[in-house]
Each structure stands twice: as structure tokens, then as C-alpha cells.
Amino acid sequence: MSQDRTSSAGSVRLLFEISRDDNPRLYDDLVRFNKGIKRVNRLRFLAHEGLMAQHRAAEREDAAAAVAPRAVADLRVSAAVARQTNLVFDAPSAIEAEQKERSGEDGGGGEGD
């Protein structure tokens, strides 16, 4: 088909055949309607919604890609601060191990030190 003919035609005619094995969800949705305009309109609606969902997903990806480099550049976290934060939210045994490490692991200092 030439480019001129498709742009001037104004409509597209399709012969659409689907079996349940091809796409069970789509088949079950379309088979609810009797043959005719209701089924065609449902297919048209589903195609339109699918196309709109693709465009929205592409827009979100573009927006995320534009924001991501700036967000990464703004993240400046000190390793010491990150370590302390992780210790606060770790299990108590991790905190005790850190305290022993600081005191020399010999346990000689104890609580009375």
C-alpha cells in the first residue's frame, strides 16, 4: 500500500481472528458480546486503552530519565553516617559487636571503665 493511499483513506479495515489459545483474556472478554458492532466497539476500546497506556508508560520513563541524573548527583552520603544509620536499624547483636570492636574485643574494659 502506498503512503498516499493510507493517509487519504481515513479508515482501516481489519479482518480479526483470534482463538482462545492465542490470548485467553482477550478472547474471553470479546466472546461476551454477540457478533457485530458491540464486539467491534469493545475491541476498538481495548486497542485505544492499550495505546494510551503505552504512551503514558513512555512518558513516565522519559520523566524518570530526566530526573534520575539530577537525583543521583544530589545524593552525597558520608560513609560514616551511613554506617551509623545501619547500626541503629540493625539487630541488637550487631550493635553489641560494634561496641566490642571499639573497646578492643577483649572485654577487659567492661561497663565499669
Topology:
Elements: H1 3-9, H2 24-31, H3 37-74, H4 79-89, H5 92-103
How is this structure best described in words?
With 113 residues, the protein is mostly helical. It has 5 helices and no strands. The longest helix has 38 residues, at 37-74. The radius of gyration is 31 Å and the shape is elongated. The model has no long low-confidence stretch (mean pLDDT 74).
What's the gyration radius in Å?
A: 31 Å
Helix and strand sequence: HHHHH
Briefly note the structural class of the backbone. Answer: mainly alpha
Unreliable residue runs:
none
Number of helices: 5
Mean pLDDT across all amino acids: 74
The number of E-state strands comes to 0
What's the oligomerization state? Answer: single chain
The end-to-end distance, rounded to whole angstroms, is: 90 Å
Q: What overall form do the CA principal axes indicate?
A: elongated
Strand proportion, as a percent range, falls in: under 5%
Bin the helical content. 55-70%
State the major sheet.
none
Keywords:
113 residues; 67% helix; mainly alpha
A few lines on this structure:
The protein is mainly α and 113 residues long.
